[in-house]
Design a protein that fits this description.
The protein is α+β, with helices and mostly antiparallel strands and 66 residues long. The chain is 23% helix and 12% strand. The longest helix is centred in the N-terminal third of the chain and has 15 residues. The relative contact order is 0.25.
Length: 66
């Protein structure tokens, strides 16, 4: 369940984008997510299981807490 919530959080972050509140300052964390887009294609309701792997990286200068 915890990973599902993290997945939803990452999906929401990707949907609304990091541009929603741009902050560029020294000493702050900056989250980079790869890949930025995942296409699961057509999934039947109740019949498909999907999975994706994301790499989270801190490209900022401050500590990143997730």
């Amino acid at each position: 369940m915890g990973l599902g919530l993290v997945g939803l959080g990452v999906a929401g972050w990707m949907a609304w984008g990091p541009g929603a509140a741009p902050v560029a300052a020294e000493g702050l964390p900056r989250l980079a997510v790869s890949p930025t887009v995942v296409d699961f294609g057509t999934i039947r309701k109740g019949g498909g299981k999907v999975e994706a792997t994301f790499t989270l990286r801190n490209e900022g200068r401050g500590p990143l807490r997730i």
